[in-house]
Automatic annotation (TrEMBL), chain B:
Job description of the protein: Part of the ABC transporter complex UgpBAEC involved in sn-glycerol-3-phosphate (G3P) import. Probably responsible for the translocation of the substrate across the membrane.
The keyword Cell membrane is assigned to this record: yes
Naturally occurring in which organism (per UniProt): Roseomonas acroporae
Domain ABC transmembrane type-1: 98-289
Domain of life of the organism encoding this protein: Bacteria
Membrane association type: Multi-pass membrane protein
Identification of the protein by name: sn-glycerol-3-phosphate transport system permease protein UgpE
Source lineage: Bacteria, Pseudomonadati, Pseudomonadota, Alphaproteobacteria, Acetobacterales
Keywords in alphabetical order: Cell inner membrane, Cell membrane, Membrane, Transmembrane, Transmembrane helix, Transport
Family, as annotated: Belongs to the binding-protein-dependent transport system permease family.
A single cellular component GO annotation: plasma membrane
């Protein structure tokens, strides 16, 4: 168990820089989830921590000790790979014991640790089997077991659940979380799945093209995304983005589609007419009440292009008069009957309180001036 | 439907041919079996004739008869072949030639496998300057078998004083890359993650070789051993050149030497007995190793 610190980590493969300076402090026992689109450098970062790659620049400290120049085996870490990477010719016991054997632990100690880990994971009965005689979920557990028996300072997970079917994935997700809490081992978990990220992490690192776009708790990432990328990446269906300009002395935004929306949380600094992007999550869009829109709302009308009923709710994909797309997630009861060839127009309300304000240039979140 | 348009009946009949009144499987299998039996005969007859020949006395075969039934001289022929050798000069006894051949073939097979395995291991799992150059240089040796470089190789063996030694017999044959390419292709299929998992487990390169690569290569090694053993066993030109000491005679060469140039009668009975004996080790290797790699192939582990 230990802290982990990354200081200005850069990594290039040949002329291509993949990581552009990552800083991160991980507390003892914390579970950090790195989430981002495929190819944004998550695995590379994990492999740098593991010592399987050498950073081009920057330092890695585990428990305060600079390990940047150390071999993987000297870093006291354990890693769970996406394809599990079990030794195909060894039994489950052999797989879990191999690392301990190399370290020269006494036989009895090895047997004890393996048995303990196997019981913890519910694979005690499988110790004599070979990996190919196991199901995907069982292999996953063996891979976890191999990490656990090492009693490392740091667990590294590289998309360990992505080869499992949906149901098993949910189950293993909960189990990994329980185990990590119970063992209290500092962990880095890489995934491209936002649900996994939200449910597993104490904190998330949302990665965008080799940069950490935001490092925060799941709820902060969801409620106060740092920029347009994070806002669009976390949440399903994805957040709506509408073009707007800063008006009324910084106290309101005028949508390109027409309506004016006052800021519920305060004035924004910036020149009149500055370009903005307003974000609003589909679940925050409301069906229009009969009558006028309230003071802290903007009324818009969309032409419905697609309705996806989910049972209790319906996701509507519509288009504003100026051509922008707007998705709304409404209770099924509030959605009028749609059908036939005729285009259906629907009045919706955008509540000011649910608004996220971003600068149009750069996409940074624009917070109210205090 | 008598008035149907012309193409229709054709199409219909193609689709609904009357069921065949004979079972195609029986007919095919009858023919197949005939061919197979013929093939078996073609392959077995020479072996049978050799076997039968080794049980008659020298004069029976010398007369030009080709007996098809075993005679009574078997035990005596095999005793002579095994202990004394045959041919005009009472050459090397079969037990010694067989021993030489087995030692040579095993050394060549094992040596080639060891060298190929290590060089493929280096080329696949390590990054060092000139790695691809090294690989291509190894690869080029494939185009230079002993037969091609026989004069310079002989020269080298003479300078090293290795003529008429087992080392001189085997080393030049070991030094080519037959199996490097095969091992390289196989190693490339070992997932990177497996290598990395071993690194994280603290396994150094040699440990990884011993604990992971070798066990995974088991079936490849078994298959290659068979092929390379036969390659070594059947060597003719190089042993002919580098060995003339009777005590290092190999059985393939010895057999050829037993047969004279026509000045006198060949002792076909002893020659055939030696030939039969010379078949046994390769057959044994194939049979034993086959078990090994068939088992390995049926329970694939990757
Ligand atoms: N060994 C390598 N050599 C060259 N490029 C690499 C190497 N490893 C990763 N990359 C590149 O780095 C980028 C990030 O890869 P990766 O970290 O695997 O992404 P992620 O895990 O987020 O999907 C990709 O564009 C990939 O092509
Ligand atoms: Mg990845």
């Amino acid at each position: 168990m230990a802290t982990l610190a990354l200081e200005g980590i850069r990594k290039s493969f040949g002329p291509v820089e993949v990581l552009h300076g990552i800083d991160l402090d991980v507390a003892d026992g914390e579970m950090i989830v790195m989430v981002g689109a495929s190819g944004c450098g998550k695995s590379t970062l994990l492999r740098l921590v593991a010592g399987l790659e050498v950073p081009t620049e920057g330092r890695i400290l585990i428990g305060g000790r600079d390990v940047t120049a150390l071999e993987p085996a000297e870093r006291d870490i354990a890693m769970v790979f996406q394809n599990y990477a079990l030794y195909p010719h060894m039994t489950v016991f052999g797989n879990m014991a191999y690392g301990l054997k190399i370290r020269g632990l006494p036989r009895a100690e090895i047997a004890r640790r393996v048995q303990e880990a196997a019981d913890l994971l519910g694979i005690g009965a499988l110790l004599d089997r070979r990996p190919r005689q196991l199901s995907g979920g069982q292999r996953q557990r063996v891979a976890m077991g191999r990490a656990i028996v090492r009693e490392p300072k740091l667990f590294l997970f590289d998309e360990p659940l992505s080869n499992l079917d949906a149901k098993l994935r949910v189950q293993m997700r909960a189990e990994i979380r329980r185990l990590q809490r119970r063992l209290g081992v500092t962990s880095l978990f890489v995934t491209h799945d936002q649900t996994e990220a939200m449910t597993l992490g104490d904190r998330l690192v949302v990665m965008n093209a080799g940069r950490a776009a935001q490092v925060a708790t799941p709820m902060q990432v969801w409620s106060r995304p740092a920029d347009v990328f994070v806002a669009g990446f976390i949440g399903s269906p994805a957040m709506n983005f509408l073009d707007a300009t800063l008006t009324h002395g910084g106290t309101a935004a005028t949508l390109r589609a027409g309506p004016v929306l006052p800021f519920a949380d305060g004035r924004r600094a910036g020149p009149e007419g500055m370009g903005l992007v307003l974000g609003i999550r589909p679940e925050h869009v409301l069906a229009a009440a009969p009558g006028e829109a309230g003071e802290w709302e903007a009324a818009v009308t969309v032409v419905v292009e697609l309705a996806e009923p989910l049972g209790s709710e319906t996701v509507l994909h519509g288009r504003l008069p100026d051509g922008e797309e707007l998705t709304a997630r409404l209770p099924a009861a509030e959605v009028p009957a749609l059908g036939g060839a005729a285009q259906v127009s629907l009045a919706l309300r955008l509540p000011a309180a649910a608004l996220h304000v971003f600068e149009a240039s750069g996409g940074r979140r624009l917070d109210p001036v205090a | 439907m008598p008035e149907a348009p012309a193409p229709a009946p054709a199409a219909a009949s193609r689709r609904s041919r009357p069921p065949r009144d004979w079972n195609p499987i029986h007919r095919v299998s009858w023919r197949t079996h005939l061919w197979l039996l013929l093939g078996v005969a073609v392959f077995c007859l020479p072996v049978w004739i050799t076997l039968v020949g080794s049980t008659h006395d020298a004069s029976t075969i010398g007369r030009g008869d080709v007996p098809l039934l075993p005679g009574a001289q078997g035990p005596e022929n095999y005793r002579v072949a095994w202990l004394e050798g045959g041919g005009r000069f009472r050459t090397t006894p079969a037990w010694l030639m067989l021993r030489n051949s087995i030692v040579m073939a095993v050394l060549i097979a094992a040596g080639k496998i060891a060298i190929s395995l290590l060089s493929a291991f280096a080329v696949v799992f390590f990054r060092f300057p000139g790695r691809m150059l090294a690989f291509w240089m190894i690869f080029v040796t494939l185009m230079l078998p002993v037969e091609v470089r026989i004069i310079p190789t002989f020269q080298v063996m003479v300078s090293l004083g290795l003529v008429n030694t087992m080392a001189g017999l085997t080393i030049p044959l070991i030094a080519s890359a037959t199996a490097t390419l095969l091992f390289r292709q196989f190693f490339l299929t070992i997932p990177d993650e497996l290598v990395e998992a071993a690194k994280l487990d603290g396994a150094g390169p040699l440990r990884f070789l011993r604990d992971v690569v070798l066990p995974l290569s088991r079936t490849n090694i078994a298959a290659l051993f068979v092929i390379l053993f036969l390659y070594g066993w059947n060597q003719y030109l190089w042993p002919l050149l580098v060995v003339n000491d009777q005590s290092l005679q190999t059985v393939v060469l010895g057999l050829a030497r037993m047969i004279g140039n026509g000045d006198s009668q060949n002792e076909w009975n002893t020659i055939m007995a030696t030939a039969v004996l010379s078949l046994l080790p390769p057959v044994a290797v194939v049979v034993l190793m086959q078990r090994w790699f068939v088992r390995g192939l049926t329970e694939t582990e990757k």
